[in-house]
Write a structure and sequence with these properties.
Layout (H helix, E strand, L loop, with lengths): L6 H17 L1 H16 L9 E2 L8 E6 L3 E6 L5
Antiparallel strand pairs: 1-2, 2-3
């Protein structure tokens, strides 16, 4: 599976990292690594995340990064 980040996702991650870096630069660097390594796992296991029950669509899922952040993604078999 190919990973494609939406402009909104990029913007939100940037906001999160800037906020965390305001208190702790090293924590922000660690969080970047956690986002990247967690999302990279989707290349091998795209169904790793949980289905969002409120959307009732098995192709739209959420993967938790760290304890506080979720990445919502869509499985697209054509990519």
């Amino acid at each position: 599976m190919k990973i494609v980040w939406s402009p909104t996702a990029r913007s939100k991650i940037k906001e999160i990292l800037e906020y965390v870096a305001g208190d702790n630069h090293y924590a922000a660097l660690n969080l970047i690594e956690q986002f990247e390594s967690t999302v990279e796992r989707l290349k091998v296991s795209p169904e790793l995340g949980r289905v969002l029950p409120e959307l009732e669509n098995v192709k739209i899922r959420e993967l938790v990064v760290h304890k506080n952040y979720g990445v919502i993604y869509e499985i697209n078999p054509s990519q």
